[in-house]
Amino acid sequence: MKIELATEKDYKYIVERDRHIPETLVRTKINANEIFIIRDAEKEIGWMRYGYFWDSIPFMNMIWIDEEHRGQGVGKEIVLYWEEIMRKKGFELIMTSTQSNEDAQHFYRKIGYRDAGCLLLETQPLEVILTKNL
């Protein structure tokens, strides 16, 4: 498995799977080095996208692992990889979130994230905000 910054050649793979971001922003995120692509034998198997909460705290927005590669530790590996990069950049706190009806909250807690609050929008399940000190 190999993790690297996404490039223009990864654009199609990402937009075909990422339904949580407007297609017009995918290139912006690629150009800002805010998407990591995960490959297995040179084939894309997933990605991780992040941004910044309050323009200052790294916030992991999305992890996607293709179905056949789930449950094999790929998600944990990309999160730990991203955490190390954020640590090297001098950040001491990182964030992510997940909906309360998703199992991802348990995954994040297992790897050291702590509940920091929640957000309730009219049309969505409760969004659980999680943080981790690096």
TrEMBL record:
<protein>
    <submittedName>
        <fullName>GNAT family acetyltransferase</fullName>
    </submittedName>
</protein>
<keyword id="KW-0808">Transferase</keyword>
<dbReference type="InterPro" id="IPR016181">
    <property type="entry name" value="Acyl_CoA_acyltransferase"/>
</dbReference>
<dbReference type="Pfam" id="PF00583">
    <property type="entry name" value="Acetyltransf_1"/>
</dbReference>
<dbReference type="InterPro" id="IPR000182">
    <property type="entry name" value="GNAT_dom"/>
</dbReference>
<feature type="domain" description="N-acetyltransferase">
    <location>
        <begin position="1"/>
        <end position="134"/>
    </location>
</feature>
<dbReference type="GO" id="GO:0016747">
    <property type="term" value="F:acyltransferase activity, transferring groups other than amino-acyl groups"/>
</dbReference>
